[in-house]
Amino acid sequence: MEKVYLDNAATTPLDEAVFEEMKPYMLEFYGNPSSIHTHGRQVRAAIEKARKKVADLLNTSPSEIFFTSGGTEADNTALRCTVEEYGVKNIITTGLEHHAVLHTAEMLAKRGDVALHLLDVDAQGNIDINQIDELLKNDPNTLVSLMHANNEIGTVNDIDAIANLCHEHGATFHTDTVQTMGHFKHDLQELKANFIVGSAHKFHGPKGVGFLYVNHEKKIHPFIHGGAQERNMRGGTENVYGIIGLAKALELAYSHMDEHRSHIEGVKQYMIDQLKANIDGVEFNGTSADLNNSLYTVLNVSLPPSEDNDMLLFNLDINGISASGGSACSSGSNVGSHVLTALGSDPMRGAVRFSFSRFNTKEQVDYVISKLNEILAIGV
Average model confidence (pLDDT) for the chain? Predict the structure, then answer.
């Protein structure tokens, strides 16, 4: 049985070149980077070299890059520490955000720290920037948190325009860039964001490591206490080989971004064409089927109505096909997608998120279409 992995928005396979870069820091260079002896200094130098590499790729200063355990910690740090540090009383976001942002904002609102304002979204998940403008006129000491591209439906926000608007009002802007980091280029001299985040395993790096960019104009206190690591911004011994891997993965992503994007878009367009040709009544959620206006790694497919859609992913799985019904953080739950629910999607239509990487092929798409046809023919 063929094995096809189409859940790259959840995690991507580790690039072999990234592993080779990490391996010496697993076996040879094992000193604690906080130690002042030679073993420690060697590792400290490697971390700072990795930090500079990430900063150079993003066109910013190494002093604005802080390594974390991943995107979730980075998002939590940006939101919670901004509210505490600056006495922010309002958060503007949407009901479509990743739970790392949405649940954090809801928690802050529940305990009375902030008022939570959820922006309206249309059927494709698009926002109206004018609504942000109106809200910021009422209280510019507001935290605006809007993701760059939605991890489930691929809808892209114009974060440059949002950042400029926040800058005009003096508001704080955080954008969850986990899904676009390594797939889109981010120039932090141009983008007026206060915080962006990255997670290595979304662009063929290791799991358990990410980073938070903190613009020098917006100082915050640590989220995790217990040590002076990361220039007193994050307690705890650094994930050394993870950091080395993150920097290498981002370097490779930036070096080959155009060719990788071209390949992935070709595979995605082929799947769109094959789905339309082979499955009557197929539809697409968000803007994911619009290659000019979506996260090119994600395609969210809405299948014909059925009372048994909860078995769809299981049946794909037993045919060797790994896909998702929503974001990875919701995998295994029967709650369903909070994103599709917020869009008012038909609960009778099974939704599958296929997400692609440079390792996927059109031949794999052919296999998926054939198995999907068999599953739908016998009833999910």
Answer: 94
